[in-house]
Amino acid sequence: MSALAQNRLTPAEYLAFERASELRHEYYGGEIFAMSGASAAHNTICWNLAVRLDSQLKAGGCRGFVNDMRVAVEASGLFTYPDLVVVCGPPVFLDASQPDTLTNPTLIAEVLSASTEDYDRGRKFAHYRGLPSLQGYLLLSQDRHHAELYQRQPGDTWLLSETSDPETRISLPVAGGAELRLGDLYDGVVFPLRT
């Protein structure tokens, strides 16, 4: 992402700009940030995750949104586009007349890239923790089999579980009890050669 040179915008000005734009931008602190394109591996992992969650989410009373659903973190003022968002129960939008900005995600998933990994694990996760509805945060590497799942615990602490074993099943009780085999999320992904 890169910041666009401009005067600081209010959230309302950002939303008006974003709704008229053909490109996606994140917003924080009055600035907008253009979002870059994603690799084939990134898109394949997102697709695999969405496909494998779909029927499980419906059975658990949840629904998913892929990378074009904007999420507003009202506590910090961040507007962003996670790779995948799950909401259990009715979705709540910032403006009910324009259902394009979700405020109550239950689970957020991000596929890590070299340029976003530090941000996704650090500051972005700090923003996400300000969402009272958020119960889980799933991070998936795009250059190897690896998943990190953070789950909210009593007292607003977060429990990390991680795996690199393709045979491991990732349990997502926060997403209607969905379960995913790690290797299935990487079906069709060609990893870079490591030297």
Give an overview of the whole structure.
The longest helix has 20 residues, at 40-59. The model is unreliable at 1-5 (pLDDT under 50). The protein has helices spanning 11-20, 40-59, 117-121, 123-128, 182-185; strands at 2-3, 25-28, 31-34, 62-66, 70-73, 78-80, 84-88, 101-102, 107-112, 136-141, 147-153, 157-163, 169-172, 178-181. The protein has a 6-stranded mixed sheet. It has a 3-stranded antiparallel sheet with strand order 1-3-2, covered by helices on one side. It has a 3-stranded mixed sheet with strand order 6-5-8, with no helix packed on it. The chain folds into 2 domains: 1-36, no CATH class; 39-185, tt1808, chain A (Alpha-Beta Complex), CATH 3.90.1570.10. The chain is globular, with a radius of gyration of 17 Å. It has 5 helices and 14 strands. 23% of the residues lie in helices and 32% in strands.
SSE topology string: EHEEHEEEEEEHHEEEEEH
Distance between the termini: 28 Å
Based on DSSP secondary structure assignment, what is the total number of beta strands? 14
The biggest beta sheet reads: 6 strands, mixed
Helix content: 10-25%
Mean pLDDT: 93
